[in-house]
Amino acid sequence: MIQVWTGPAGLANSAQGTARHEKSGVRPVPDGGSDVPSIGAVGLRLGQPDAGRSIPLGMSRRPSFNCFPDAEGDVDKLPINVAGRHLILMRHAKSSWSDGDCVDHDRDLNPRGIRAARQMARLLASEKLQPDFVWCSTATRARRTLALMLAEWDRVPAILFDRVLYLARPETVLEVIARTPPGHSKLLVIGHNPGLEELVALFAGGDRTDDGTAEMPTAAVAVFEHAGPGEFDAISAATCQFERAWKPRQLAGDD
């Protein structure tokens, strides 16, 4: 079962939204229930396979900033067409290996990963790319990345967590993207390598692969405009136009 939390203004709180999710086989989680996270609250309780685990938030809101140097140190001010329909692919932030007994699915973030997740959230907000819908892997490091990002945003997107995104191949990620309910313009997918990096390379094209743009280290983000007809269920390499990519090491203040 996939669990969805759509927040106070999300799809699950309208008859239309509930009908959409029922058609897709997704069970809405009512606003205010025990599975509903909130900005500034103590935890983000999620679905399969370890629904009883709580991931702390407790993050203070931080000011956004607008200058993000590229790899050469220059400020890149290339505009993004924020009016279009955008796919934002993000690898989870850097995880910890400190607990040798922890299974891979349950590894949390290390301090560097926590910092990078916050920075990427502020970056997306400053670039007017704050998502209105999120698909997220159920792995703790992916969920924790999203929890940190939610604490930096001024509104909450609709969210779906799906186990199949854990270490998914690129074709599986595409299948998940195609299940995005209609009516959204900025879709964020938080997943894992190598599948996510392979999908970015496919969408970005050969030149971007050769110059390293398609590389997806932890917390990296790649943005594509879906320029074809239809919604995200019609997305493909042919309809995607690469716009920007950011890596944590490029962000101002990252050390």
The whole-number mean of residue pLDDT values reads 74
SSE string? EHEEEEHEHEHEHHEE
Number of helix segments? 6
Unreliable stretches: 6-79
Class from secondary-structure proportions: alpha/beta
How far is it from the N-terminal to the C-terminal residue, by CA? 40 Å
Overall, the morphology is globular
Radius of gyration: 17 Å
Strand content: 15-25%
Query: Which range best describes the helical content: under 10%, 10-25%, 25-40%, 40-55%, 55-70% or over 70%?
Result: 10-25%
Largest sheet: 8 strands, mixed
Provide a concise account of the structure shown:
By secondary structure, the protein is α/β, with parallel strands linked by helices. The chain has helices spanning about 15-25, 110-125, 140-150, 170-180, 195-205, 205-210; strands at about 5, 25-30, 45, 55, 85-90, 135, 160, 185-190, 220-225, 240-245.
Describe this structure in words.
24% of the residues lie in helices and 17% in strands. By secondary structure, the chain is α/β, with parallel strands linked by helices. Strands 2-1-7-6-8-5-9-10 form an eight-stranded mixed beta sheet, with helices on both faces. A two-stranded antiparallel ribbon has the order 3-4. α2 packs across α3 and α4 (170-178) crosses α5. The N and C termini lie far apart (40 Å).
Main features:
255 residues, alpha/beta, eight-stranded mixed sheet, 6 helices, 24% helix, 17% strand, globular
SSE layout and pairings?
Blueprint: E1 3-5, H1 15-24, E2 27-28, E3 44-45, E4 54-55, E5 86-91, H2 111-126, E6 133-137, H3 140-150, E7 158-162, H4 170-178, E8 186-191, H5 195-204, H6 206-210, E9 221-226, E10 240-246
Parallel strand pairs: 1-2, 5-8, 6-7, 6-8
Antiparallel strand pairs: 1-7, 3-4, 5-9, 9-10
Helix pairs in contact: 2-3, 4-5
